[in-house]
Q: What sequence folds into this?
């Protein structure tokens, strides 16, 4: 038996007749012996479950929970939808004054000789091969914008879902250089995609009100990715852009 309040009396004391239990003054030695025995027996008792405050518990990291993983092209999870679109601020496009791509430092080193472009090509491709300097030499890539499969890495561009110039017009002009660098090399959000040269050049810096992927089956994913990026970076949308995105999201099943 266990107790959190003190000693536990031996069973024989608890079962003594009342008349014997009130005689301690008549037989002091017997009482002292009984108390000593109670102490020994209590010390020998043990509990299977500890109720001690602060007992060791599994750490928060012991559950094995991991962060989001990339699922195909575009990096991290896509969360943008109609609700997120409605939450974006609608504003007129800002001036392109002062813009240059050099203000968005991109294709920075990502370790092991690889830059951001190399990492995206490795992530989005199958059977990707690279040389000792991490330059991609072979593989297979699916370009979702135009529903094409390509095997020549030189036939691919890395597209910024929200183009650098489009970001500039919707709030990035006020960012620091470090913030723009993060945006241009973001491997966490669905911002970077390996796509065909033709589709990327056709898109340019246009938002969905002016350009949509020719592959209509990809409209839902494209719009969700666009909204996810704009939501994370707190970029605005024009009214025409919002309408176009709504049309594309209506294709989601």
A:
């Amino acid at each position: 038996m266990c107790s959190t309040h003190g000693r536990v009396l031996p069973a024989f004391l608890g079962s003594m007749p009342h008349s014997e239990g009130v005689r301690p003054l008549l037989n002091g030695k017997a009482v002292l012996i009984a108390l000593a025995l109670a102490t020994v027996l209590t010390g020998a008792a043990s509990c299977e479950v500890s109720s001690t405050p602060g007992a060791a518990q599994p750490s928060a990291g012991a559950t094995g929970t991991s962060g989001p993983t990339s699922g195909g092209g575009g990096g991290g999870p896509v969360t943008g939808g109609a609700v997120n679109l409605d939450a974006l601020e609608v504003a007129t496009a800002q001036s392109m004054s002062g813009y240059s791509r050099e203000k968005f430092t991109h294709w920075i080193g990502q370790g092991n000789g690889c830059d951001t472009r190399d990492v995206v090509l490795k992530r989005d491709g199958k059977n990707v091969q690279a040389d000792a300097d991490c330059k991609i030499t072979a593989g297979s890539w699916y370009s979702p914008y135009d529903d094409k499969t390509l095997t020549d890495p030189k036939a691919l561009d890395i597209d910024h879902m929200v183009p650098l110039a489009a970001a500039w017009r919707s709030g990035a002009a006020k960012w620091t250089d470090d913030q723009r660098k993060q945006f241009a090399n973001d491997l966490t959000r669905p911002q970077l995609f390996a796509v065909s040269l033709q589709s990327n050049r056709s898109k340019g810096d246009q938002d969905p009100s002016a350009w949509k992927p020719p592959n209509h089956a990809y409209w839902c994913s494209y719009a969700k990715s666009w909204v996810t990026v704009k939501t994370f970076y707190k970029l605005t949308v024009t009214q025409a852009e919002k309408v176009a995105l709504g049309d594309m999201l209506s294709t989601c099943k």
The chain has ten helices and seven strands. Strands lie at 109-111, 114-115, 125-130, 136-143, 148-150, 156-160, 192-196. The longest helix spans residues 28-44.
